[in-house]
Amino acid sequence: xxxxxxxxxLAVFLLAGTVKGLVGLGLPTITIALTSLVLPLTEAIALIAxxxxxxxxxxAAIGGRFWVILRRQWxxxxxxxxxxxxxxxxxxxxxxxxAFLVLAAVLIVYSGLGLLRIRLHIHADLEKPLAPxxxxxxxFVAGLVGVxxxxxxxxxxxxxxxxxxxxxxxxxxxxxxxxTLTVSLLNFGLLDGPRAIVSAAAxxxxxxxxxxGQQIRRRLSIEQFRLAVFWALLLTGLYTxxxxxx
Length: 246
What we know:
By secondary structure, the chain is mainly alpha-helical. It has helices spanning about 5-25, 25-35, 40-45, 50-60, 65-90, 100-115, 125-145, 150-160, 165-185, 195-215, 220-245. The chain is globular and about 50 Å long. It has one domain. The two termini are about 25 Å apart. The model has no long low-confidence stretch (mean pLDDT about 80).
């Protein structure tokens, strides 16, 4: 990576950290979406390794229900981790060109659900049979594009979970995801010395951005900012899709 690319990546982490501090999620999604416009997808995924571990461990630890959540979500987490590692082993480490189309589709679907306020309602009887399926699909998506938000996010939001517990549940699942992703990157040589240094450096602007976002949250409408984030992700997804087809 050139100096300009590194500077751009760190600036993106500051922005993505600000969004996470403001609305509680979005750091890996925004980072992958923006850095992949100027970097190969495998480089962009390597950048998020350490910042996502730090932010997700923090999110998973706060709330006091870690073990309760882990007991409930392990049928989702274990298949997700296995599918993610296998995907990185089979195709993710090669960075196939069509992975950008998957990324574009993920951004468009995720932002579309947010803008249309579509939320699933999953019956309790369906949770156990659905969890492994959602885990496998989310792990496959994460292995390709670095983020498992589709179908993971709509699934978790559709469960009967209190809002405060949902935030910690996302932290627990995404913590397992980010740890598996980092191990995969290390095993397959995608997180070598230089990339690891840049990823470690990105922890600082990510955490600084989270602090800034928390300060902004006290002064601005979270709803307006949330809509702006979804529109930005939608436009980025459409641009990514168009640039790969034209």
